[in-house]
Design a protein that fits this description.
Number of domains: 2
CATH superfamily of the largest domain: P-loop containing nucleotide triphosphate hydrolases
Number of helices: 7
Shape: globular
CATH topology of the largest domain: Rossmann fold
Helix content: 10-25%
Radius of gyration: 23 Å
Strand content: 25-35%
Distance between the termini: 41 Å
Bound molecules: adenosine-5'-diphosphate, magnesium ion
Structural class: alpha+beta
Strand order of the largest sheet: 6-7-8-3-9-10
Order of helices and strands: EEEHEEEHHHEHEEEHHEEEEEEE
Length: 302
């Protein structure tokens, strides 16, 4: 398993990561979330051995992951990393990029593997197209497939679907995460997208102020968000009487002690997000229909 022990790291004087400890078992899917600049990408790079730690240790099974001071070549065979900025070979085809590090001596095997991965990232019809002509999202999918080519034991993914449009994103996400689970590949994903977490992650780690704020099951954190930062990751919420209340937990009722004035209704598909004013402060709730601006409503927490 991956075992991160008291890791501290800084690029210069101030620590970007402080005292980080967590574990990930074989096949486990761990998501790292945090605001932009909270150190998600740095953590993945450090796990990959791109930098030397100021303090602490990282182990994969019994092998310590070491930085450039101790390693001539960065990276290990058992671990792959897909950066936010992926570097592919632009002048060769999609299939050639994916198979680049597979041995030519087993041509049949190489072709089979490349075809399998093209399917996982849903790029089969682009196999023979030069990478330079692809969109950002398509390139991101090639980078994913290439990282999987030699079947790592653990993969580090930095915002893996960030460049991919919404038409493709849902099915691609299912395909990739299903594949990783089926192959028992440990997966550490840095993201700010809740869709990368809910339904897929076994554990969710929240980075805040350079430290791990919480490390728990996504369901536990969703149902009982201890801080506004955690709640904000899952959606629109309010703080009412010091409690965090998601917009879908606030209902319009006949009568209650919470009297609000409707400001705006936003169409959201299967519901409307209503912005109202309660005690001079905005609150958000979900409702099945629009409400008129200026209307008085009574609210209740479900
Ligand atoms: P995230 O991925 O969560 O947005 P990063 O890990 O990219 O956060 O950045 C964390 C902090 O480290 C930021 O303050 C960023 O400016 C700083 N940082 C990132 N890369 C470097 C670098 N190569 N040199 C110096 N500082 C960096
Ligand atoms: Mg980042």
């Amino acid at each position: 398993m991956l075992n991160v022990k008291n890791l501290t790291f800084s690029y210069d004087k101030t620590a970007v990561l402080k005292n980080i400890s967590f574990k990930a078992k074989h096949g486990e899917h761990v998501v790292i979330i945090g605001e932009s600049g909270s150190g998600k990408s740095t953590l993945l790079k450090v796990l990959y051995g791109e930098y030397d730690l100021n303090d602490g240790h990282i182990f994969w099974n019994n092998e310590e992951i070491l930085g450039p001071k101790y390693n001539l070549v960065i990276g290990y065979d058992f671990m792959k990393y897909v950066a936010q900025e992926f570097d592919l070979m632009p002048f060769i085809t999609v299939a050639e990029n994916i198979g680049k590090f597979l041995s030519r001596f087993y041509l049949e095997e190489k072709e089979k593997r490349t075809a399998e991965l093209l399917e996982v990232v849903e790029l089969t019809q682009f196999a023979n197209i030069k990478v330079k002509t692809l969109s950002g999202g398509q390139k991101q999918r090639v980078a994913l497939a290439r990282a999987l080519a030699k079947q790592p034991e653990i993969i580090l993914l930095d915002e893996p679907f960030s460049h991919i449009d919404n038409f493709k994103k849902q099915s691609l996400r299912r395909s990739v995460f299903r594949y990783l689970k089926a192959k028992n590949i440990t997966c550490i994903v840095a993201t700010h997208d809740k869709e990368d977490v809910l339904g897929f992650a076994d554990k969710m780690i929240v980075l805040n102020n350079n430290e791990i704020e919480v490390n728990d099951l996504p369901e536990t954190l969703y149902k009982n968000p201890k801080t506004p930062l955690i709640a904000s990751f899952f959606g629109e919420f309010n703080i009412i009487n010091d409690n965090i209340i998601y917009s879908n937990q606030l209902k319009v009722v006949e009568h209650s002690s919470l009297k609000a004035t409707v400001k705006t209704s936003y169409f959201k598909g299967h519901y409307y997000l209503i912005e109202a004013i309660l005690n001079d402060k905005p609150v958000f709730l979900e409702h099945h229909q629009t409400l008129k601006e200026g209307a008085l409503v009574y609210l209740s927490v479900e």
